[in-house]
Specification:
The structure holds two protein chains of two kinds. Chain A is α/β, with parallel strands linked by helices. Chain A is about 35% helix and about 25% strand. The radius of gyration of chain A is 17 Å and the shape is globular. By secondary structure, chain B is mainly alpha-helical. The chains are: A alpha/beta, B mainly alpha.
């Protein structure tokens, strides 16, 4: 069977603020349901790598395949519905919490699964939150969790998580981890999770990627 | 107006140069260039119009309109630097706006088919479309910087480029139309518009002048709406790359 996502020889150089090769000839394979932690010093291009995998950024060179089909044969929109990037800076769209939760069903004209949304909200300890609240008035941690629920409602095959628990307190962080492990079990949703927290990496991942010195390497989770 | 009277108007230029020297604004050179250019350009246009009104040949009129559209496109295009293909889209937008506005004015018999009407009214329509295009592109550039997160959030959730950029287009279209709409609200109370002033000074009755001004204001409101919507629909793809990524995105490590 084809791997879910595969990339070969990805190279990305940035010019701002200074000319720098973030990574060169990076290759990797992600199978369905894989749980991967990405670690490495700041500023090494972990976010950029994830953004490239979500087609939000373009590599200078290299190939990307989703389900064995090269990137240029995919409609970007359909690719992103399978591979969903969740930013470390959550953006709430105009309107209420409910408007935000309904974004996916509005964009794709599908029925809104209110029961599933409530369940997810409860899982991230937002079960008591009023959905009529203005989304812009929420705290950073609340926005982060709603952004995650909003993405889970898309039911992607793979989540690209960019330090999504960085602004959460310990209890919420553990709740989010548990939710993502559960979604992984029940729905087969895999994830590639950037985290600076080694302990978290051990809890959430079965594989580990390290990005440093413009090289991407795979190591054991126990070595995190 | 006699040539002597026209010459006397240089006194106003002297006032501005005097103030510039007195307050060390260093604007004397620019004021002089502006004075010479405005006089030369307007006198040249005067001669051209005298000739065009004399012949009324449709091809000459068409040529005049094309030149006006060309200059307006080039001018508005400066706001869209970095967007490949924006000039063509502005050109098409302004042309359609002019065609629809003038077409309606002629077809409904609001103005007669005469160069005396067609050229000045087209000039104002095209000029307004140029300003609206510039405002639209300016605002879009600002939005592209400040609302990048919004667009990319929507893209990440599987939105099409059009869905992802829809709110930005709406906000930019609104902000490009607001000056025209505000102008409609205050016209006559704050200032008398140039065309109306000109007609009154040239001897037309104020009521006649007002009628034409109303025509212009109403035509502007539709041409502003038409310009911003056409430009929005034709240009939104330019903000996205080949793989549908939002172009303004800077690479963050």
């Amino acid at each position: 069977m084809d791997p879910l996502l595969q990339f070969n020889g990805l190279t990305k150089t940035i010019i701002i603020p200074e000319s720098k090769t973030l990574f060169a000839q990076a290759s990797g394979t992600i199978n369905e349901g894989d749980r991967i932690a990405v670690t490495g010093p700041s500023g090494q291009g972990k976010s950029t790598l994830l953004r490239i995998l979500a087609l939000l950024d373009e590599p200078d060179s290299g190939e990307l395949f989703l389900k064995g089909k090269p990137k240029n044969r995919w409609e970007p929109r359909l690719w992103r519905m399978e591979v969903c990037y969740v930013s470390q800076f959550p953006v709430m769209l105009n309107g209420t919490v409910e408007d935000n939760l309904k974004t996916v069903s509005r964009l794709h004209q599908t029925a809104f699964d209110a029961a599933y949304a409530s369940r997810l909200m409860a899982h991230v300890e937002l079960g008591e939150m009023s959905w009529s609240k203005e989304a812009s008035s929420l705290s950073g941690g609340e926005k982060q969790r709603i952004a995650l629920v909003r993405s889970l409602l898309l039911r992607p095959k793979l989540l690209l998580l960019d330090e999504v628990t960085a602004s959460l307190d310990e209890a919420s962080k553990l709740a989010v981890e548990q939710l993502l492990r559960e979604t992984n079990r029940s729905e087969g949703t895999g994830y590639v999770w950037i985290s600076h927290d080694r302990e978290q990496g051990k809890r959430i991942a079965e594989r580990s990627w390290q990005l440093s010195g413009s090289e991407l390497s795979e190591g054991a989770v126990t070595c995190l | 107006m006699s040539l002597i009277a026209l010459g006397m108007t240089l006194v106003f230029v002297a006032v501005s140069i005097g103030i510039s020297i007195w307050q060390k604004l260093s604007l004397e050179k620019d004021i002089l260039i502006g004075t010479v250019r405005s006089a030369a350009q307007l006198l040249a246009v005067g001669f051209v119009l005298q000739y065009v009104f004399g012949t009324s040949h449709p091809l000459i009129v068409l040529l005049m309109l094309l030149i006006m559209i060309g200059v307006a496109t080039w001018n508005a295009g400066k706001r869209g630097k970095g967007l490949r293909g924006i000039l063509l889209r502005i050109g098409i937008t302004i042309s359609i706006t002019e065609f629809v506005t003038l077409g309606l004015l002629l077809a409904l018999g609001i103005i007669p088919f005469s160069t005396r009407y067609i050229i000045p009214i087209s000039g104002m329509t095209i000029g307004n479309a140029m300003v609206v295009s510039s405002l639209f592109l300016n605002q879009m550039k600002r939005e592209a910087e400040t609302s990048r997160g919004e667009v990319e959030t929507l893209l990440s959730l599987g939105a099409t480029p059009r869905q992802a950029i829809h709110e930005l287009l709406k906000r930019s279209a609104r902000s490009s139309m607001i000056p025209t709409i505000d102008g409609m609200k205050t016209v006559g109370l704050v200032q008398l518009p140039g065309m109306m002033t000109g007609m009154i000074v040239a001897g037309a009755s104020p009521l006649e002048a007002v009628r034409y001004q109303i025509l212009i204001m109403f035509a502007f409101s539709s041409s502003a709406a038409l310009t911003s919507i056409l430009l929005a629909l034709m240009s939104y793809r330019l903000w996205f790359g080949t793989q549908g990524q939002f172009k303004s995105s800077k690479t963050s490590a």
